[in-house]
Specification:
13% helix, 213 residues, single chain, Porin, eight-stranded antiparallel barrel, 2 helices, mainly beta, elongated
Length: 213
């Protein structure tokens, strides 16, 4: 965990330094939907009717204009990677509360349109699960996260359009490479995240093209 914290801090610092010049700070809100993939997930899904659910997401970002056509993006997002499943005919929810960092995302920019891709690091901070106890649904908080990987390393890619007054609309896909669960009897569980986000954001202090000198 200590090694992960060092890597996480390094990526964070690198992203901030890289975006220190000609940068636009902004914030965004939106909706996220997480699906999963892997043989273990497929086996459980068939038995438990697991379904992804839409959840709110929010975050902030720094866009650095390296040139007219090339930007570097650094983003920090709150993402709830939740799903529902049925147990004895009752729908139960599971929520995984995550902080996503996309430290160095390369973006091709042309007349407001962007296409981008880069590494992602996700830190799981807490979870909450519905549990059926004596016929009643009880919410169980799990902050210890025993048996669950607290981090996920993957890739993020997306497209975005930003109007010249700062408003932007975007779609992102985050594809995780780290299993949600830790190995069992030295066998790695095959259960991975794949999230989709639709966002609305605003870059603070960005001047319209018509007002630039």
């Amino acid at each position: 965990m200590k090694r992960l914290s060092i890597v996480f801090g390094f990526l964070l610092l690198t992203g901030i330094v890289a975006n220190a010049q000609k940068a636009h700070f902004g914030f965004r809100v939106g909706a996220s939907n997480t699906t999963y993939y892997g043989s273990d997930f497929s086996a459980v899904k068939d038995a438990a009717s697991i379904q992804p659910i839409w959840k709110p997401t929010a975050g902030f970002y720094v866009n650095s204009e390296v040139s007219d056509y090339f930007w570097i993006k650094t983003e920090f997002n709150y993402v709830n990677r939740g799903y529902t499943h049925k147990e004895f005919g009752t729908t139960l929810k599971t929520n995984y509360y995550c902080i996503d960092v996309y430290p160095l995302t390369a973006a091709f920019h042309y007349k407001g349109a962007q296409i981008f891709a880069g590494p992602s690091v996700s830190l799981l901070v807490a979870s909450q699960k519905d549990s059926l106890i004596a016929g009643q649904v009880k919410k169980i908080n799990d902050n210890k996260l025993d048996g669950i990987n607290r981090y996920d390393v993957g890739i993020m890619a997306g497209v975005e359009y930003e109007f010249n007054f700062g408003l932007n609309l975007g779609v992102r896909m985050v594809h995780g490479f780290t299993s949600l669960y830790e190995p069992v009897n030295n066998v790695q569980t095959q259960w991975f995240n794949q999230s989709y986000m639709f966002t609305l954001g605003y870059s603070i202090g960005k001047k319209p093209e018509s007002s630039k000198e």
